[in-house]
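Lecture 7 notes: from sequence to structure.

We start with a single chain of 291 residues. Read the sequence below before looking at the structure.
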Amino acid sequence: MKPPPFLYHAPESLEEVVALLAEHGGDARCMAGGQSLIPLMNLRMARPEVIIDLNRCRELMRIDRGQDSLVYGAMVRAREAEQSDETVTGCPLIPKALLHAGPIAVRNRSTVGGMLAHADRTAELPGVAVALDAMLVIASAEGEREVAATEFFLGDMTTAIEPNEMLKATRFPLASTGAYTEFFEAGVRQEGVAIAGLAAQVLIGESGAVEGIRLAATGVESAPVRLKSVEELLLGSKLDELLIAEAAKLGGSAVGPVDDPFVPARYRRRVTETFVKRALQGAVNQRNANV
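Now the structure, written as tokens:
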């Protein structure tokens, strides 16, 4: 099946992109990797009258390291972000999450901005963004604004981006030295649709107490869920078997999945519970190995 007719633009600068968005508004869609948008158009689930192809905008292809964050332009490829030395050392949760984002051929084409702006509930990077309190930079002809990840994802394939706006960049905070990071994901088959996932970053101090913890569940609701109740329970406490079990149970009850054709809601709760337990035990194991 082929997509409906559309007008195609391939601008070479951000200035051109936002001018086109200002001109066409809700009739236009920005295209990054195209791996989600094109199938939706082929199936007539999306019918934009204007496509704005971002693949020639080199200013959106940068990874910049600031004093306390890494900034990814919207057109940074997932594979580039995954393999970048800046990412591996500065924000190791990102490459661990991207390993789950499909085969290498897909990651070579997909982009950081596209994965975030598409807002698929099963995608990995939205969960990382919510867990780490990332800031998303949204641009329009009127200027720029920043939106916190917790306010950016509004539901299934729905974000805070307005019709005349586009996602320019995303700012991820740098990880604390010695923090344990991991991304867990379960799917119906290898490299298939994800059932549930967990983005985790845990810092255990010299005293053995949790000094920092960030947890976000993916695939369980229409947007990533920050497990604040679990974080509040554990912050300042020393992890032992009983506390980990209590935190895991709390994590499972903190999400509100519904039954669907893939799995029942209770299974997603159980998977979330299991992933919280694995993350906390992993943090303890890493700390014990370094003592």
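The chain has three domains: 7-53, 58-173, 180-290. Keep this in mind for problem set 3.
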